[in-house]
TrEMBL record:
<dbReference type="InterPro" id="IPR001179">
    <property type="entry name" value="PPIase_FKBP_dom"/>
</dbReference>
<feature type="compositionally biased region" description="Low complexity">
    <location>
        <begin position="26"/>
        <end position="50"/>
    </location>
</feature>
<dbReference type="Pfam" id="PF00254">
    <property type="entry name" value="FKBP_C"/>
</dbReference>
<protein>
    <recommendedName>
        <fullName>Peptidyl-prolyl cis-trans isomerase</fullName>
        <ecNumber>5.2.1.8</ecNumber>
    </recommendedName>
</protein>
<feature type="domain" description="PPIase FKBP-type">
    <location>
        <begin position="100"/>
        <end position="187"/>
    </location>
</feature>
<comment type="similarity">
    <text>Belongs to the FKBP-type PPIase family.</text>
</comment>
<dbReference type="InterPro" id="IPR046357">
    <property type="entry name" value="PPIase_dom_sf"/>
</dbReference>
<feature type="region of interest" description="Disordered">
    <location>
        <begin position="24"/>
        <end position="57"/>
    </location>
</feature>
<dbReference type="GO" id="GO:0003755">
    <property type="term" value="F:peptidyl-prolyl cis-trans isomerase activity"/>
</dbReference>
<keyword id="KW-0697">Rotamase</keyword>
<keyword id="KW-0413">Isomerase</keyword>
């Protein structure tokens, strides 16, 4: 894996994990978007093609334990969430990651629109290194990995505004990204 500025060249494909735009607030760990359940009137007001309700972390199914390549199944009966969703699937131990720390992560990425795996460090057998909060990665990672502990497996559902927005580097415009991440290495906080 070679890094060129904010673009990471991985194997034969290119997956840019570059940050763009201003910082934005996100849903807290384990929280869904906070949207009210869909009712008959909500469904009637939903945009064309809408399922009438936003998905939550519980709607996205994953398999596998820490260190194993996960499978990610995106449901057909709800819409992608509009806010960042963060859920620990396995808690990990030790100190939570803080901005400025060097992390080593494994990940698998499935795109919402086609429900297909786009990239996976598990498949390459090489974790991904990043400096948390430094803008090395998309905003959804900088925000969603805050506080992760070593040995944790975390689900990130990242809306377009915290991902690739208008698209590029193999990502379609307005694409919601679903990651399962494993914290291979998180430094111990000294203080």
């Amino acid at each position: 894996m070679r890094t060129f500025g904010k673009i990471v060249v991985i194997g034969a494909g290119v997956l840019a994990l570059a940050a763009c735009g201003d910082k934005q607030n996100t849903a807290g760990s384990g929280q869904s978007s906070g949207a009210a359940p869909a009712s008959a009137s909500t469904a009637a007001e939903a945009p064309a093609g809408s399922k009438g309700k936003e998905c939550t972390a519980e709607d996205v199914k994953t398999t596998g334990k820490f260190g194993e390549a996960p499978t990610i199944t995106i449901p057909d009966d709800c819409d992608p969430p509009k806010k960042l969703i963060v859920k620990d699937l396995e808690p990990g131990t030790g100190d939570g990651a803080k901005s400025g720390q060097q992390l080593k992560m494994n990940y698998s990425l499935v795109t919402w629109s086609n429900k297909q795996k786009l990239d996976s460090s598990f498949d390459r057998g090489e974790p991904f290194d990043l400096s948390l909060g430094a803008g090395d990665v998309i905003k959804g990672w900088d925000q969603g990995l805050d506080g992760i502990k070593q040995g944790a497996r975390r689900l990130l559902i990242i809306p377009p505004d915290l991902g690739y927005g208008k698209g590029g580097n193999g990502i379609q415009p307005n694409e919601t990204l679903v990651f399962v991440t494993d914290a291979v290495s998180v430094p111990t906080n000294k203080g």
